[in-house]
Every structure is written in C-alpha cells, then in structure tokens.
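Need residues for this backbone.
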C-alpha cells in the first residue's frame, strides 16, 4: 500500500527541537544592527500574532541537509501568516513547508561573497523567497532583490534612496548608518527606546505649554 506525503511525514521523528547551528556574528556592529531590525519590527507589529522573525537562526529545509551538515541560516528572516512563538530553529517540514517571505543578510568580510552568490541562488531557486536584501554595517552597501518570474531582479530605490518591500509593506533604507524601516510616507519607524524618548519629549513639551498658561500639570 502506498503512503501519502502526510503519512510519510507522520512517520518521521519530530524535528521541532532541532537546535540552531549558526556561528557567532562578525562584530558588535552586526549584533547592534540585527537587534535593531528585530526590535523595531516587533514593536511596530506588537498587536499582531501571525508572524515569526528569525535572527541568526538555522533554517532546516531537508533531511539530506541534516546528514550533510549543510546548515544555512539567514541573519534575519520573516515568515508571515504563521504562529508567533519561540523556536529553536526553523524546520521547513514541521512548518507546513513554509519558507521565509523576506530575508536580510548582514554582509561581512568573511560572508559577503557567499551572501551575494551561493545564498542568493539558494534563496532564489530552493526557498523561492519573494524578497532578499543584503546590507553591510561596515561599508553601508545595500541591495534589494525581488523574485520576478522565478529570478531575482534588483529593486530600484525611490528618490529618498529607500527600497520598497512588498513583504513588509514598508521601506528599507539607511538612517544614521543603520538599516532601518520607513513607512509609506518615508517616515522612520522608531525602536521601543526611541518611542519612549519621543513620548517623554512630548510630555515635557505639553507640561511646558501648560505652565506657560499658568497651569501646573502635576496638580
């Protein structure tokens, strides 16, 4: 009796506990940049529960890959329309065959060539990831690619030098030498810390205005 694909998958051992197998990031610049990308998007989408962000996390996409120990983990990836909960790694066959909708690699001296060639081909031909960006925290090189007819094509920046991401419904661009998100109007998306500082600034500004009118805001 032949088995269906689902029945075969059901007979396989649970792979959801596979640990990530990614090396340490190149420098503190890379750590800061990655943390900023994660924090800003998590904050902006804080009311949503239907996405997963992977940060320096291995993507396991085949059991042959496990045997060969051919591990591949983007610095940053986004999967939409999935459950938002912690994972030790992203195991494609345990996630209904889902691959990332967006990948961002942070270039370094040791990874730049692989990111521009081998990983680009993998994300294009195997993952079919709709959008792939790479950014160098050192040189500020930024490039965006979108899958068009199964082949990556460059994303042209707008007049502000921002690259539109259909997966994010946001722009990506450089601000203060960091890769940041921008809204449809080109306004910077703040981090939680920046948002807190802005709220404090506005509160102090309002208090000053009230005092100028003879009103003590603390009473």
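Answer:
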């Amino acid at each position: 009796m032949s088995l269906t694909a689902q029945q075969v998958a059901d007979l396989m051992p649970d792979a959801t506990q596979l640990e990530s197998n990614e090396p340490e990031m190149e420098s503190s610049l890379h750590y800061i940049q990655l943390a900023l990308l994660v924090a800003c998007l998590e904050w902006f989408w804080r009311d949503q529960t239907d996405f997963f962000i992977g940060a320096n996390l291995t993507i396991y996409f085949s059991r042959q890959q496990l045997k060969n120990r051919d591990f591949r983990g983007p610095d940053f990836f986004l999967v939409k329309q999935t459950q938002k909960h912690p994972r030790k790694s992203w195991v494609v066959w345990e996630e209904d065959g889902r691959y990332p909708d967006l990948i961002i690699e942070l270039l370094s001296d040791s990874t730049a060539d692989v990111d521009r060639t081998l990983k680009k081909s993998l994300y294009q031909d195997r993952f079919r990831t709709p959008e792939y960006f790479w950014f160098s925290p050192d040189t500020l090189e930024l490039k965006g690619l979108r899958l068009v007819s199964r082949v990556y094509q460059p994303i042209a920046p707008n007049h502000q030098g921002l690259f539109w991401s259909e997966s994010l419904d946001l722009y990506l661009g450089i601000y203060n030498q960091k890769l940041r998100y921008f809204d449809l109007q080109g306004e910077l998306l703040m981090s939680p810390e920046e948002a807190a500082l802005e709220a404090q600034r506005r509160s102090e500004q309002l208090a000053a205005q009230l005092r100028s009118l003879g009103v003590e805001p603390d009473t």
